[in-house]
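Recall that a protein's primary structure is simply its ordered list of amino acids. Everything else, from secondary elements to tertiary packing, is in principle encoded there. The following example makes that idea concrete.
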Amino acid sequence: MSTVTEIEAALEKLPLEAQQQVAAWLESRLGVAAADKDVEDAWDDEIKRRMDELDSGRVQGVPADQVFARARGILGR
């Protein structure tokens, strides 16, 4: 078994919070967060736009059960 596979297996055994801590450490170590700042800003703008549309009534939300049912249908589950 490779070292990477061993690390993956060990990470999968960790509680979710510990996995998130490892992910945050890797992200800071690899500089991913800084590289994706423009993408994060664009998503922030998109989220604000969509929330404004919902709040103003320009668009209607879809109930979660319908969204998940549709997703299950697409995934064939």
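The mean pLDDT is 90. Helices lie at 3-13, 16-30, 32-35, 37-56, 64-75.
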